[in-house]
Write a structure and sequence with these properties.
alpha+beta, 19 helices, globular
Length: 598
């Protein structure tokens, strides 16, 4: 079965152009070349590949799975051809440095494109995401020789990259990593096992570049003794082409709840003479280097959350338009279920969250571009602080909501949603990994509260909340009942966030258990409010377009934007009130039940 997908280009264009993100990108270094016509062409062409090539193999790949045959991983039918089309179109090189063959487009634009790959086929889209993180890590920390050898091939997509952190005894606690690295004259020999390695082995590219965390024999214990190594599947020869097979193997594939098209590998290093590895940077700084990759990946996983919701929404909406059952309020029988109030509630909830997520994510990526490209250091530092705050929110909030909203998409289908043939259940199953990998959402919440709030003394989050208050003040000048409702509900949510922030700053350091017990609530409150702020900005633009007159506009489009922002304000922002009490109480209710009773 093929479930159709059409990239939401009009919505992306609205965020990039109407909300002013593209104008800000154009003020950055190299941004003068990022014209509206260029962006439109990029989005249109990417949308075609997503719709015509990636989406048609999504459901079949889920049913077929990747498979391990005689030591070789075979991806589902059509994946190799799709990857070839993706690479030949130059899509793998979009955000990377021109010095190594990249197109050097801003991450703000690249992320909009990335959403399309993930919505069309999330299992396929994992391969570019892992490679993207590996490229980022080597750009930041590799030697010039390593960059010249690996980056052009990884940026073109000729080779792919992976990240190898997790071991059977060491999940999120990387201090327990036991993989060993033995020094040789010009390389190291790596021995150990890694699990959950996405695209650790596959048939899409001619070589795979593994970035592996390992510990030298005389390294200190804990995270301070971890180093990062390049371990290619095939050792490059003197011309840079894949040569001798390295001592690294995929020994099994995991059986999973979702993302079945992607191979999740158990990798063995050094079953024979030891896998040849090359040190990245300095010994014992591997975790520091890997976090370059991790932070990139966490933002990308947030994009996957949005992408899963968008895909589930499109399918639920299309089904609701066609499925006829029951009597509509006007007496029509049988009526398309999209005319029933509860179905409309669910569809509007999915749509409102997806629009809020998209705007928040692209705004975060604008900050990423600003931190890298702005000519003034003060702006770069400001943007870096903002990215630091928004990274756990984008990863945590967007993926938590992805599970809830893809489940809602199943509910729209009723009993047919529970049947695999419709494809609705796949979006739910695929999304369930998102709050787990690249740092569980509990880790994201603790990072937001422990590091980005308490350790920072609230500086960066305080800056953000001040901007939210300024937005509310601007809404005071807007007339009309709709804008008054949006302003009132956003103001209440911002007050809740401000009060929760103050409480955690006052008590969190002296009682970290309380802060960690409240962290998940705080992260959701932050995301919900930040999404509401982006929807308020969207409402302002939509109202101005509708009131402007003269310009030829699609009134129906902007009326829908205003209606969706109003729905978010009336139906979603009030949820902020219910998140404040558990933050104030901390873990008191968690301590009330002894461990043995849980």
């Amino acid at each position: 079965m093929m479930v159709p997908y059409n990239a939401p280009i009009a919505d992306m264009r609205f965020v990039l152009k109407d909300l002013g993100l593209l104008g800000q990108v154009q003020q950055l270094h190299g941004g003068e070349e990022i014209t509206p016509d260029l962006v439109e062409a990029v989005l249109e062409e990417a949308g075609k590949l997503a719709r015509d090539v990636l989406a048609p193999i999504n459901h079949a790949g889920d049913r077929q799975h990747s498979r391990l045959e005689n030591g070789v991983v075979r991806t589902p039918d059509g994946y190799a051809e799709a990857y070839r089309a993706y690479v030949e179109g130059g899509w793998n090189s979009v955000p990377f440095e021109a010095d190594y063959g990249g197109q050097d487009l801003p991450w703000t634009i690249a992320t909009a494109v990335q959403e399309m790959w993930q919505s069309a086929n999330l299992a396929f889209g994992l391969c570019p995401i892992l490679n993207q993180g590996a490229v980022e890590a080597l750009q930041a920390h590799g030697s010039e020789a390593q960059k010249q050898l690996y980056l052009p091939r990884m940026i073109s997509g000729e080779w792919t990259g992976t990240m190898n952190l997790t071991e059977p005894q060491a999940g999120s606690d990387l201090s327990q990593v036991k993989t060993r690295a033995e020094r040789r004259e010009d390389h190291y020999r790596i021995r150990g096992q890694k699990i959950y390695i996405t695209y650790g082995e596959h048939d899409l590219a001619e070589n795979i570049v593994h970035l592996v965390l390992a510990r030298c024999d005389d390294a200190p214990e804990g995270v301070k003794g971890i180093s990062l190594f390049i371990v290619p599947k095939f050792l490059p020869d003197e011309t840079g082409a894949p040569g001798q097979r390295n001592d690294v193997r995929c020994v099994s594939l995991e059986r999973k709840l979702g993302i079945n098209g992607s191979p999740t590998c158990v990798m063995a290093y050094g079953d024979d003479e030891g896998a040849v590895g090359y040190l990245v940077g300095e010994e014992n700084r591997g975790l520091e280097y890997m976090f370059t990759m991790m932070n990139n990946a966490r933002l990308a996983v947030g994009v996957q959350g949005l992408a899963a919701v968008e895909r589930a929404y499109q399918q639920a909406r299309d089904y609701a338009r066609e499925r006829r059952q029951g009597r509509a309020i006007d007496g029509t029988y049988p009526a398309a279920i999209i005319r029933h109030a509860d179905i409309r509630r669910m569809l509007m909830t999915m749509r409102a969250y997806s629009e809020a997520m998209r705007a928040l994510i692209l705004d975060a990526m604008l900050m990423q571009d600003t931190a890298r490209r702005h000519p003034e250091e003060s702006y770069r530092l400001y943007a870096k602080r903002r990215v630091g705050v928004l990274t756990p929110v984008v990863k945590g909030w967007c993926t938590d909501m992805a599970v809830e909203l893809t489940s809602m998409g199943v509910q729209v289908h009723g009993g047919m949603g529970y049947i695999e043939e419709t494809g609705a259940a796949q979006h739910f199953r695929d999304s369930r990994i998102l709050p787990i990998y690249e740092g569980t959402n509990g880790i994201q919440a603790n990072d937001l509260v422990g590091r980005k709030l308490i350790r920072d003394g609230g500086e960066a989050i305080g800056e953000y909340i001040d901007e939210l208050h300024a937005l509310i003040n601007g809404l005071n000048e807007r007339g009309g009942e709709d804008m008054a409702i949006i302003r009132r509900q956003l103001a209440l949510a911002v007050d809740h966030l401000d009060n929760a922030t103050g409480h955690l700053l006052e008590h969190g350091a002296e009682n970290p258990d309380a802060a960690h017990g409240a962290a998940a609530y705080y992260m959701r409150l932050f995301g919900l409010t930040a999404g509401g702020a982006m929807m308020a900005r969207a409402a302002i633009v939509a109202q101005d377009k509708l009131d402007g007159g003269g310009e030829e506009i699609d009134r129906g489009f902007y009326e829908a934007k205003l209606a969706t922002a109003l729905f978010y304000a009336e139906n979603i922002l009030p949820l902020s009130a219910g998140l404040v009490t558990p933050i104030a109480r901390g873990p008191a209710s968690l301590r009330a039940i002894p461990d043995e009773a849980l």
